[in-house]
Design the sequence.
């Protein structure tokens, strides 16, 4: 197919789009601008997209990393993802986000707001007045955080601090561990003696 043929085809396809679709897309999403720096994916205009869809940057970012199954950070107006994430994948997840948290289900307008009503989040449409509850998922825990510390087992830790009673303090996932007689800065093996909630007591383990 020649370039001219393609353009003609594109023009015809655009003319065939029903009117309501162009009316509904009242906001103009910028083309997603992605580049790769080594093994990092940089979404350069993440902030611009978040502004256009008028959603909280952090919540939008957290949705993206969860759905993309990666880790990442926000760097000013940029979003950085660990690993190489293909652009198509980002576009797909953005589409899912729009359907879940932006578009009105009744009139498809993007002129909506997320408002908290009691314990639920509700998507309210300014165009038609429609509203529906939206599911808000909690951030996924990392495997390290969800792994339960077990009494009688040995773990490798770094003693980050010294507690009021002179014990070494280490952190592991959600746990704070007090280690008898451990000096600050030591990387050591410890034996867990007791676990109470998120607090654990241990002693240095010598092999
Ligand atoms: Zn609506």
Sequence:
């Amino acid at each position: 197919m020649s370039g001219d043929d393609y353009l003609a085809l594109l023009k015809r396809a655009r003319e065939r789009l029903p009117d309501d679709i162009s009316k509904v897309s009242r906001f103009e999403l910028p083309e997603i601008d992605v580049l790769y720096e080594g093994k990092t994916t940089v979404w350069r205009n993440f902030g611009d997209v978040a502004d256009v869809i008028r959603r909280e940057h952090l919540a939008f970012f957290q949705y993206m990393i969860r759905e993309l199954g990666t880790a990442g950070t926000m760097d000013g107006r940029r979003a950085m993802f660990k690993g190489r994430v293909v652009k198509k994948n980002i576009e797909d997840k953005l589409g899912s986000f729009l359907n879940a948290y932006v578009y009105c289900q009744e009139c498809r307008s993007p002129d909506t707001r997320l408002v908290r009503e009691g314990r639920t989040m509700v998507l309210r449409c300014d165009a038609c007045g429609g509203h529906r509850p939206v599911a808000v998922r909690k951030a996924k825990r990392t495997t390290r955080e969800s792994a339960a510390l077990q009494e009688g087992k040995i773990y490798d830790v770094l003693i980050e601090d010294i507690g009021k009673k002179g014990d070494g303090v280490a952190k592991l996932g959600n746990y704070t561990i007090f280690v008898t007689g451990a000096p600050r800065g030591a990387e050591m093996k410890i034996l867990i003696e007791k676990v109470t909630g998120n607090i654990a007591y241990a002693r240095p383990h010598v092999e």
Summary: The pocket of zinc ion is lined by residues 104, 106-107, 109, 125, 127-128, 130 (CB under 6 Å). Residues 143-204 form a domain with the OB fold (Dihydrolipoamide Acetyltransferase, E2P) fold (CATH 2.40.50.140).
